[in-house]
Amino acid sequence: MIDDPTVRTEATRSWLAGLRDDLGLLVDRALDRHLRLAVTGLRRSGKTVFTTSLVHHLLDGRGLPFLRAVHEGRYLGARLLPVRDGHPFPYEAYHAALAADPPTWPAPTEQLSRLLLAIRFRTINRLLEAVQPIQELVVEIVDYPGEWLLDLPLLEGSFESFAEEAFELARTSPRAELAATWVELVRSVDQTGPADPVAIDALVRAYRAYLLDCQERLQLGYLVPGRFLHPGELEGHPALRFAPLPPAPVRPGSLRAAILEAFESYREEIVRRFWDEHLRGFDRQIVLVDLLGALNLGPAHFADVQRALERIASAFRYGRSGLLARLFAPRIDRLLFAASKADHVAPSQHAALKQLLEILVAPAGRAARFEGLVPEFLAIAALRSTDVVRTEHDGQILSCVRGRLAEDGRETVLFPGEIPPELPEPEDWTSGRFRFRAFAPRRLRPGVPGQHIRLDQALEFLIGDKLR
Ligand SMILES: Nc1nc2c(ncn2[C@@H]2O[C@H](COP(=O)(O)OP(=O)(O)OP(=O)(O)O)[C@@H](O)[C@H]2O)c(=O)[nH]1
Ligand SMILES: [Mg+2]
User: In this structure, are 362 and 313 located in the same domain?
Assistant: First the structure.
């Protein structure tokens, strides 16, 4: 064995640096100086816009009257810290696009990125005030494609439970029609026969085509496994060579055995790694829900969102955590469900939006409630892109929204309709009542008030107590 002292010193130095970082993080967590915020939500629910607007406003330090530290004049500012491991959240690029003329929304996220934001404030803690009146809190956020979350339930289930759910969904409307070709192929496959790569390819391709159809033609969101649709850098990865199969005995070397093996590696190498390296150990969580999008798309989509959020919630750990638990078995101790894009409707609708959100996410909130954690609900817009105008129609005053439509950039005033405060009745779905339109963004600028709706209230709930 080569025992070169310079190599040894180098290695020891980097080991010590790593240890110091780890210990530093533990100490910071123990002292409440490091907070991990989970920004959760299905695809296109508004995670990237939320994170970008949050950073913009905290860097700017203005336009957040409901954040107590700001209101009390104790908020001193924030800065982004360098991210050493992994991709840094491309804040500058997203921000530049939203601040440009004309501004543009960020593209769907394709890879995971991390963000570290240091916030300085004057403490009101009597003990700390005397020793170190200026305190710092580091907020850590990860951003990722929403569909990756759909895989978390696989960690607790088995291949059999995954397949059973897939077949059950494929039997019911509206998926059944699109599933026909794939289901037909599954019937013709001999699972106990040899692991023929051509047959496996055909199965995987048919299942993927079905999932893609569900997304493109029905715009459904609960499509598992989440990485099958847009695998990105995983395209062609052997762990993606599986698809649901009905129960059958497993013979060594058989097609079923090969599929089970791929499923296991998908679960362990891809999903568990995503969970262990990036999602475990959050302190606070915001779950963004595009409720208006769900209403637009009808009852099947609505049920789909509900199912997806319920499954995802069961993967996180909730409850109060003491000091030791905070270090070694962290739990989410504050949970906020937020209906995003609330600027698509008039403020008079926000109470109903919030109420409907409570009903939609009730199954998802159950996991937290069971652990004694009471979730909070808000209707928010991370980046407000409309304003309200009142118009008269048949002697009635209507609250309308004015903004540039996303599809053609045309400045429009429209009455977005009303949000039912309860789950819509069957006749509500068929009357074409829900047609909430998407808007192009308004330019994000420093020092301009009213560029969001309740982003500051969301922040006060999520991190406000750590800025005392
Ligand atoms: N009007 C309005 N639209 C919003 C707001 N936030 C998000 N949107 C719209 O929702 C779309 C999706 O937002 P993103 O933040 O990219 O969603 P995401 O959750 O990061 O999506 P993935 O990266 O695909 O998981 C945007 O392109 C906007 O059209 C908002 O505050 N107001
Ligand atoms: Mg995104």
Answer: yes
Domain region containing 14: 1-30
Any domain includes 406: no
pLDDT band at 298 (very low <50, low <70, confident <90, very high): confident
Taking a C-beta distance cutoff of 8 angstroms, is the pair 275, 148 a contact?
A: no
Residue among 269, 212, 262, 268 at smallest CA distance from 242? 262
The residue type found at 31 is L
Amino acid identity for residue 455 in this structure: L
pLDDT for 20 beyond 70: no
**Single-letter amino acid code for the residue at 161:** S
Q: pTM of the prediction? A: 0.92
* Cα dihedral value 307, 308, 313, 314, nearest 10: 70
Query: Which among 246, 241, 258, 136 is positioned nearest to 193, based on CA atoms?
Result: 258
Whether the CB of 47 sits within 6 Å of ligand 1: yes
Parallel, antiparallel or unpaired: strands 134-143 and 113-122: antiparallel
Question: Is residue 42 lining ligand 1, measured as CB closer than 6 Å?
Answer: no
Same-domain status, 111 and 157: no
Q: Are residues 459 and 337 in the same domain?
A: yes
19, 143: one domain: no
DSSP string, 85-127: SSPBP-HHHHHHHHHSSS--PPPPP-S-EEEEEEEEEE---HH
Domain annotation covers residue 433: no
Q: What does the pLDDT read at residue 1?
A: 41
> Does residue 108 have its Cβ closer than 6 Å to ligand 1?
yes
What pLDDT sits at residue 432? Answer: 72
Q: In DSSP terms, which residues pair with 129 in a beta bridge?
A: none
- pLDDT at residue 131 above 70? yes
Q: Grade residue 2 by pLDDT with cuts at 50, 70 and 90.
A: very low
**Beta-strand relationship, 75-81 and 396-404:** unpaired
**C-alpha gyration radius of the chain:** 24
Distance between Cα 381 and ligand 2 center (Å)? 15
Whether residues 450 and 368 fall in one domain: yes
Q: Strand pairing of 387-393 and 75-81?
A: unpaired
Q: Is the CB of 438 under 6 A from ligand 1?
A: yes
382 in ligand 1 pocket by Cβ < 6 Å? yes
Q: List pLDDT tens digits, range 83-100.
A: 988 899 999 999 999 999
Same domain assignment for residues 100 and 188: no
Ligand nearest to the CA of 288: 1
Ligand nearest to the CA of 286: 1
